[in-house]
Amino acid sequence: MSALHTGGPTTDLPLNDPAVVAEVQAVFARYEDALVHNKVEVLDELFWDSPTTVRFGIFENLYGHAAIKAFRAGRSPAGLQRSLQNTVITTYGDRFATAMTEFRRAGSNRIGRQSQTWMKTPAGWRCVAAHVSVMMEPQP
Question: What is the DSSP letter of 94?
């Protein structure tokens, strides 16, 4: 993770305060556990309950918490295990963060990519936008 940086050419927000990074790492780990173990109620909780929440998946574009919740309820629990690599969490002040990671599923020659935008609400950190995509593993 990056060291604490204050300001920059376009912002006065402190970047990567260690305490805030730790909070987001914890909620990101909770999300990952819920995802691979199909804990739908936790996934529903961690997405912001708003019609403006968006999740672009590999085969679906979901607009609003209700659509995301319906997708999760209908998704097969099979084959959700994966390993993560190159995870980068960046915090902007103490209320916004991004979490980017690559993932692999056993036996696949594809690399998955996941990006999330997190916002701290009175109820805790909530994902307000997510995007998942896959690409073929580059050939040497």
Answer: T
Residue-level pLDDT, tens digit, the chain, 140 residues: 344 445 555 667 899 999 999 999 999 999 999 999 999 999 999 999 999 999 999 999 999 999 999 999 999 989 899 999 999 999 999 999 999 999 999 988 999 999 999 999 999 999 999 999 999 887 77
CA 110 to CA 103: how far, in whole Å? 9
Q: How far is CA 115 from CA 6, 12, 134, 139, 140, in A?
A: 24, 24, 12, 24, 26
Among all chains, which residue has been given the structure tokens 């959700």?
Answer: 80
Global pTM value: 0.88
3-state secondary structure of 79: coil
